[in-house]
Write a structure and sequence with these properties.
alpha/beta, single chain, five-stranded parallel beta sheet, 10 helices
């Protein structure tokens, strides 16, 4: 069993210590570093070769969004995933963090077991955590007066791919998409992969953003 190398980035020492104890309690994980600033997080990601960074948004020197952007844009750190910590109700910067390259987010008061499950999920390449809450948060941010452009969806997709993208943006996983459209789970997964390739998206989180910003899905839709 491979060990997931986790880097913890949070400006609160007690929060980092609590997360470190939890992560170290898992047999398949180890904490390889702790950062109190965004700049430290970027440097430690480079030197400690972490598999995943649990990143707070609000930190001194360099916030979690910019730190995420630097990690995601560094070819030498291509395999490093970033899991954002947010207070959810107040952190509207989460959309910017997802655009910057974060693979998902966690609410700060999440249950311990859910944090460990989230780390495993993201480390395994499942790029979007809690797709329902994620899509609802993105919809809330994009429902501002300026709103997303209503163009009927991104160009270059087939009708079936547009259907798949719309369902993904509403929070459905591959199995649920397959059941809704009468496809096999493998076919649904293939569609998602092709959509990511066509749109140049890093992960499912960015697909959700594209779906809303292109007008394929309108904030407030069921």
């Amino acid at each position: 069993m491979s060990t997931i190398r986790v880097l913890l980035a949070d400006d609160q020492t007690l929060v980092r210590a609590a997360f470190a104890m939890l992560v170290e309690s898992a047999r398949d994980m180890e904490v390889v570093g702790q950062a109190g600033t965004g700049a430290e997080a970027v440097e430690l990601a480079r030197t400690e070769r972490a598999d995943l960074v649990v990143m707070d948004i609000r930190m001194p020197e360099l916030d979690g969004i910019e730190a995420t952007r630097l990690i995601a844009s560094d070819d030498d750190l291509a395999g490093v995933k970033v899991l954002i910590l947010t207070t959810y109700d107040t952190d509207e910067h989460i959309l910017e963090a997802l655009r910057a390259g974060a693979s998902g987010f966690l609410v700060k008061d999440t249950r311990p077991a859910d944090l460990l499950a989230a780390i495993r999920t993201v480390a395994a390449g499942e790029s979007l955590l809690s797709p329902g809450p994620t899509s609802r948060l993105i919809a809330r941010v994009l429902s501002a007066p300026s709103g997303p452009p209503t163009t009927g969806g991104p160009d270059g997709l087939t009708d079936r791919e547009r259907q798949v993208l719309a369902l993904l943006a509403r929070g459905l996983n591959n199995t649920e998409i397959a059941e809704t459209l009468g496809l096999s789970p493998l076919t649904a997964k293939t569609h998602v992969s092709r959509i990511m390739g066509k749109l140049g998206a890093r992960d499912r989180a960015q697909l959700v953003i594209v779906a809303y910003e292109s007008g394929l899905v309108v904030p407030g839709d069921a």
